[in-house]
Design a protein that fits this description.
By secondary structure, this protein is an alpha/beta fold. The chain has 2 domains: 107 residues, Aspartate Aminotransferase, domain 1; 216 residues, 3-Layer(aba) Sandwich (Aspartate Aminotransferase, domain 2), CATH 3.40.640. It contains 13 helices and 12 strands. The strands form 3 sheets. The protein has a 7-stranded mixed β-sheet, sandwiched between helices. The protein has a 3-stranded antiparallel β-sheet with strand order 9-12-11, covered by helices on one side. Strand 5, helix 6 and strand 6 form a beta-alpha-beta unit. Helix 3 crosses helix 4.
C-alpha cells in the first residue's frame, strides 16, 4: 500500500469547495433563485421526458436552444453558446482567452466564484473595490492593465446595475477581454448582448437559473462575436447541456414571454414593498436592480445565525469592501417577506 500523497497544483492549494447551502430552514432566501415559480412551458416539457430513455447523448450543437435564444435576443444562433450554467461558460472563457499567469481584474465584492475560477485556471485575481455608487471603478480596473476584466451587472451581492457610461468606457478602453456577467439582467431591463456580438473584446454571460426558475437544470449561455463563440466552444467541450434542459429552456423562451414579463413585474413589486418596510423598521437596504436586496447589519454572521434560528436562510457577507457587513436576501412572495420582516423586528441591533 502506497503512502504517497497526491498534491494539487499550486493554484489550487488555497481554494476551498463551494458550499453555501442555507441548511435546515423553513424559508430559504439565500440563493437568488426564482421563488415565484418556474417557466410553465419548461415544466410541461419536463413531464414529457418522464417516459423517455436517457441512454443517448444530447445534441452536440444545441441548435434548437440556440435558435430559440437567438430569436429572443435578436442575434444569430452562432453568436451564443449554451453551457452547464453560466459558471461553465465563465470557466471556459478564462481557459480560452487568457494565458496562465495573467491577471484577472474584477470588481469587489462580487460573485464569489470569479476569483475561484481565476485561480483554478492559473490566473492571478486582482480585486478592485467598486465605487460607493455601485458602479465599477473603471479607472481602477484599467489601471491593473489586466488582459481580462470581469464585471457583474447587476452586481452580486450589492444588487446594483452598472450605468451605461461606465460600461461603455470600460469596453472602449479595456486593454484586453471583458466579461459582463448578466445573471440578473432581466430584472434590470438592460443588456449588452447585442453590442457584444459586434465587438471582439466582450463576452456577455446569462443564465436560466434566476428569472426563468430553472436552476436545477443547470443551464446558462454566453453571447459574443462568432469568432469568440467558436473559440469558447473548444474550451467548453462537448455535451455540456443535457437534453432535458435544452428542450425545457427552448420551450420556455418560445412560449413563456408573457409569463416572464409578469414574473419580473411581480418580483419588482415585492422587492419595492420589502424595501419600503425595511426602511420603516429603521434599516437601510441598498438600491437593487435584481431579485434580491443587500441589507447592511452590524454583525452579518450573528444576524445570519439569528435568522436561521427563526427558520430563515440568507446569505452572509462579513467585512466586505465598500459594503461592510451585509445580508443578501432573495425577494420572494409577500408571505415569505412578512415572515422575514417579523424576524428582523426581533433582530438585536
Amino acid at each position: 500500500m502506497s503512502d504517497k500523497t497526491i498534491e494539487p497544483r499550486t493554484a489550487y492549494r488555497g481554494l476551498t469547495v463551494y458550499r453555501t447551502e442555507a441548511g435546515a430552514v423553513e424559508i430559504d432566501l439565500s440563493d437568488n433563485t426564482n421563488l415565484f415559480g418556474s417557466a410553465p412551458s419548461a415544466v410541461a416539457s419536463l413531464r414529457e421526458w418522464a417516459n423517455t430513455s436517457p441512454a443517448r447523448y444530447p445534441s452536440l450543437a444545441t441548435a434548437g436552444l440556440r435558435d430559440a435564444i437567438a430569436g429572443w435576443l435578436g442575434i444569430e444562433p452562432d453568436e451564443l453558446l449554451p453551457g452547464c450554467g453560466s459558471n461553465d461558460v465563465l470557466d471556459a472563457a478564462m481557459r480560452a482567452f487568457v494565458e496562465p499567469g495573467s491577471r484577472l481584474a474584477f470588481t469587489s465584492p462580487t460573485f464569489v466564484m470569479t476569483s475561484h475560477f481565476a485561480a483554478a485556471n492559473s490566473l492571478v485575481p486582482v480585486a478592485v473595490p467598486h465605487l460607493q455608487s455601485g458602479d465599477p471603478d473603471v479607472e481602477g480596473l484599467l489601471a491593473t492593465n489586466a488582459p481580462l476584466i470581469y464585471v457583474a451587472t447587476p452586481n452580486n451581492p450589492s444588487g446594483t446595475a452598472a450605468t451605461r457610461p461606465a460600461i461603455q468606457a470600460l469596453l472602449d478602453r479595456a486593454p484586453g477581454f471583458v466579461i459582463l456577467d448578466e445573471a440578473y439582467t432581466e430584472f434590470a431591463g438592460t443588456s449588452w448582448a447585442k453590442e457584444a456580438v459586434t465587438r471582439g473584446n466582450v463576452l456577455v454571460t446569462r443564465t436560466f437559473s434566476k428569472v426563468w426558475g430553472l436552476a436545477g437544470l443547470r443551464l446558462g449561455y454566453g453571447v459574443g462575436s462568432k469568432a469568440m463563440v467558436n473559440e469558447l466552444e473548444k474550451a467548453r467541450g462537448p455535451y455540456k447541456v443535457n437534453a432535458v434542459a435544452e428542450q425545457a429552456a427552448a420551450a420556455a423562451v418560445r412560449q413563456d414571454q408573457a409569463w416572464l414579463r409578469a414574473t419580473i413585474a411581480a418580483v419588482a413589486g415585492a422587492r419595492d414593498r420589502l424595501v419600503q418596510e425595511l426602511r420603516r423598521l429603521g434599516f437601510a437596504p441598498h438600491h437593487s436592480d435584481a431579485n434580491f436586496i443587500c441589507l447592511p447589519v452590524a454583525d452579518a454572521q450573528a444576524a445570519g445565525r439569528f435568522l436561521q434560528s427563526r427558520g430563515i436562510g440568507v446569505r452572509v457577507f462579513a467585512n466586505t469592501p465598500v459594503l461592510g457587513d451585509v445580508l443578501r436576501i432573495t425577494v420572494g412572495p409577500d408571505p415569505m417577506m412578512a415572515a422575514l420582516l417579523r424576524a428582523l423586528m426581533e433582530l438585536p441591533r
